[in-house]
Amino acid sequence: MTTSNLYALANKTQNVFLSPIQELLENWNNIHGLTFLDESKISDLEWAGYPGQGWIKFDSVDILNYTYDPIWFDISKNNIKSKVANERWKKENEILTFEGNELKLDDKTKISLQNAKLSLTETQSIQWKFRNGFSTLTHTQLSDLCNFTFNYINQCFNEEMRVCDLVSSVTTLEQLISLDLSCNWPSTEYLP
To answer: What average pLDDT score do residues 164-177 get?
Structure first.
């Protein structure tokens, strides 16, 4: 997971957080394109009519200069876990490549694959429509395709769980910002 777009809004005069750690909003309080501004403008919003306020970058050591309560910390951790879950959802719905054939993994495709696998005998083959055309699949190929898609989705969930468990395990902001939140998503290419 990339943390480059995670911030917390802070009152820099009182050294307290005004919002939990979250993705920087593109449009916030009539400031449009906030995500496109340079760090100096994001961290000091006086120019926009918000003196003493600024968005503090999550992976900045400056974030440790602010006080917070347990509820703020729990909400911040949940926001990070939600970001990981959203990334997993995007990865789970990516285009997979199986023997040169491109497959979009939506719910209908998942169900159709399982139904075809259950219906096909070992001596039969099936015409399957992929994103880049039709392909004839033997029972073995269909079985391999089903196993590949199942394993891919399972690995995505396992990676989400690994990172979320890391986030859940910390008890201080210092521990949280020191975590390596990089996700190791599985390959979208079938490797026999």
So the answer is: 96
**Tokens found for residue 171:** 């008890």
- With residue 118 as reference, give the H or E element that holds it: helix 107-119
Contact 159, 141 (CB under 8 A): no
Rounded to whole angstroms, the Cα distance separating 23 from 33 reads 13
Q: Is the pLDDT of residue 36 over 80?
A: yes
Kindly report the CATH class assigned to 69-192. mainly alpha
Q: Which two tokens stand for residue 76?
A: 């911040």
Give the start-to-end residue ranges of the domains of the chain. Answer: 1-67, 69-192
In which residue are the tokens 């990070």 written? 80
Q: How many CB atoms lie within 10 A of CB 137?
A: 23
| Average pLDDT value for residue range 17-36 | 91
The residue behind tokens 């911030």 is: 7
